[in-house]
Amino acid sequence: MYKNFLRYIISVLFLLGVSGQANADFKVGFVYVGPTGDHGWTYQHDEGRKAVEAAGIKTTYVESVPEGADAERVIRQLAQSGHDLIFTTSFGYMDPTNKVAKDFPNVKFEHATGYKREHSNVSTYSARFYEGRTLLGHMAGKMTKTNVIGYIASFPIPEVIRGINAMTLAAQKVNPDIKTKIVWVFTWYDPGKESEAAQALIDQGADVIMQHTDSTAPVQVAEKAGVWSFGQASDMQRFAPKSILTSIIDDWAPYYVERSIAARDGTWKQQDTWHGLKEGMVAMAPYNSAMGSDLVKEVEQLQKDLASGKAHSFTGPIYDQKGNILVAEGSVADDGMLAGMNVYVKGVEGDIPQ
Amino acid sequence: MIKIEKRNDVSPSIYFLTPILAIFLTLFGGGIIFYVLGFNPLEALKFFFITPISDLYGFSELLVKATPLCLIAIGLSFCFKSNNWNIGAEGQLIFGGIVGGGVALLFYGHDGFYVLPIIILSGAIGGMIFAMIPAVLKTYLNTNEILVSLMLVYVAKLLLDYLVVGPWSNPEGFNFPETRQFSESARIPVLFDGLRIHAGIFITLITVFLSWLILYKTYLGFQIKVSGLSLKTAKYAGYKGKTMIIIVFMISGACAGLAGVGEITGPIGQLHRNISPDYGFTAIIVAFLGRLNPVGIIFASLIVALTYLGAETAQIFLQVPKYTGQVFQGMILFFLLGSDYLLFFKIKFLGLKKNEL
């Protein structure tokens, strides 16, 4: 009796100890650049956080953290207050993340869209949004009557240029006459600037509008003007039900859950993740039936092919604006070329701002 | 019948005590807000005002945050004391940062003790020149300095945007909108290893002392104060109004420029689009909370800086929205202005007189 009791106590203590070590105190922190209610970039990261929470792991977030001197303090505070894994979800947190990581070797850090992993406890991750752009290009090429596609771009970084090129290539494949017109707004989120840009593109004859910015303003302008549009980052369908053909959705939830569980169970390792349609980090919102069931079927097939690897967004031959060959016939662009992409393909109008 | 009358004699001690009263009212109001949100008010206030500075790192962060606010507010006090409404300190800060950052990039890869002083000086001069635009326009073309200085904020922001996206962007930075990290010789040294508090705090303290000297011990300071109290008197006394307007704007701009260059050579270490989270505007609250007095401004900058840090810790520990920090800043200003009103005016409740019926 006494022995059994002792055994019971020991096993309970052991269990408590194990679970206490691995579960009870484990916390994941998130640093957001915008408010959780932006319906775009930050909103989707917060959806990912909620999925982690639903998986039984405690989370904390700090929203609207400026990318200046304040970021380092916020990241450090999260590390100091017992967070074991910290996701910093904007490019501007790259240097602060690495700086704090140096001082907290036992805390894991995950930085979105950056390229610096200066310490073994820093991973980076991003999504192959360009695969979604290929689908958008296919639809835009088919739907345009004016053969002008309007593109609202944020900053001339490789990620944005990749999207412009992927879209243009896909649109050319179904409609060789299309032209891509670009307005650079130099912001990720500014409803005023974005809607002005959308209007300017429509005035220049664009009857399909897409955006690499995060607010819902462009789709609302498109809805009013009666032209087609695509949502960005989250499903923006309810903001422009007639105009939106689909939205590219950033689905961080599976990655966040996987990495959080790995960190909790001690299997987390440094890595550079670049997931796309295949892994589900890039997803498509339901397709608008207004584009006709044939086109919907085509796009759904293309989506499957991109996910399975049967199709690739950058399949040669690809030429730059001057006609020089970038990717030879029969081959596809490798990740190194994609990561540093800084030229437009043929068919894009204008120059990359330098 | 309510009658509002101006009070003739306001005791100076109460004049300096009302900001403290405003802070206590803010704590009280904040406690009520936290209570309504479903938190234990005392615990929430502890997370907001004590946790951020409960260790050395937190205290250092408080000073890092307060340094630019204090510098800008000191400069603004010269303008505000003399009835010149410089609302564009944010623009002067950014322009100072642009000039200082440009010089830092020019000296990229250079070593030498002379690099940092040149950068800091050029930042101050940059802010000063930018502040002279509204001053000169006001004195010679009679424009409104509030509008001109405010609109110039956007000019400075757009200029910075252009530079970090285009000509000054980091050649190895994949076109991301930021410059290179400055060389070590262009960085303000930190005072303690592991903390971010840097030598810029000495520049701030020296500036505070010099301001006190100018405002209270020089003829210029006397002129500034007289002009603030009564422009007519100042003119009657034969003060050169135009020169004084330009001088106060120059001082103010130089201080904002110093704050800007202190940020980029201190905690940030490069130029990018977000070098200031609106320090130039927050400093206006700081200046008034500190009663436009150099010592008062030191305390005010610490308190306002604390509301920023508190908003972050309250978010981490209680998950309250970030905007509570702004609510606190708003409440401080509201209570200060409210108590000021009652300080300078008294409300008389009069009975109805017969002939008014």
Give your account of this protein's structure.
The complex is a heterodimer of chains A (354) and B (357). The radius of gyration of chain A is 23 Å and the shape is globular. With 354 residues, chain A is an alpha/beta fold. The longest helix of chain A is centred in the first third of the chain and has 23 residues. Chain A has 2 domains: 126 residues, Response regulator (Rossmann fold); 179 residues, 3-Layer(aba) Sandwich (Rossmann fold). The radius of gyration of chain B is 22 Å and the shape is globular. The longest helix of chain B has 28 residues. By secondary structure, chain B is mainly α. Chain B is built from 13 helices and 2 strands. Chain B has a two-stranded antiparallel sheet. Chain B has a domain of 222 residues. At the A-B interface, strand 2 and helix 3 of A face helix 3, helix 10 and helix 12 of B.
Chart the SSEs and their pairings:
The complex is a heterodimer of chains A (354) and B (357).
Chain A: H1 2-24, E1 27-31, H2 41-54, E2 58-62, H3 70-80, E3 85-88, H4 94-103, E4 108-112, E5 122-127, H5 129-143, E6 148-153, H6 158-174, E7 179-184, H7 191-203, E8 208-211, H8 217-225, E9 228-233, E10 244-250, H9 253-265, E11 272-275, E12 282-284, H10 293-308, E13 318-319, E14 325-327, H11 335-339
Parallel strand pairs in A: 1-2, 1-3, 3-4, 4-5, 5-11, 6-7, 6-8, 8-9, 9-10
Antiparallel strand pairs in A: 10-12, 13-14
Chain B: E1 2-6, H1 12-36, H2 41-49, H3 56-81, H4 89-106, H5 115-141, H6 145-165, H7 200-217, H8 219-229, H9 231-236, H10 241-268, H11 279-289, H12 294-318, H13 324-344, E2 345-349
Antiparallel strand pairs in B: 1-2
